[in-house]
Design brief:
globular, 54% helix, two-stranded antiparallel sheet, alpha+beta
């Protein structure tokens, strides 16, 4: 598996959680809310394009809506390769954290 950044990992997880609602602004809002920090569109767009180029994410156009002036949303989904990457990352994190000594309260 090719190594991905922490940010790319967070974006993949957000897409997985959002399912068919995973479009750019929804991903931004989801990450901003759960990470309790404001994510910019650019902080998501560039890594998202890289993930798609590498085959970890796929996209398709959703239905055009009057609310969007007849435009479609680009919806993202985690590919099989992306899901395999997330599983590997989760396994690695679990192994590392299992070896982490307990932190004592000060």
């Amino acid at each position: 598996m090719k190594t991905i950044s922490r940010r790319e990992e967070q974006i993949l997880i957000a897409i997985w959680n959002l399912k068919e609602s995973a479009y750019l602004l929804a991903i931004k809002n989801h990450l901003s809310k759960i990470m309790e920090t404001d994510w910019s569109v650019g902080a998501i767009h560039k890594p998202l394009m890289k993930l798609e180029k590498e085959g970890l994410v796929e996209s398709y156009l959703g239905e055009a809506t009057a609310k969007r002036g007849g435009r479609s949303k680009k919806i993202y989904q985690v590919s099989k390769l992306g899901l395999d990457a997330l599983k590997t990352i989760k396994k690695e994190h679990d192994v590392l954290w299992a070896k982490f000594p307990a932190i004592k309260k000060v």
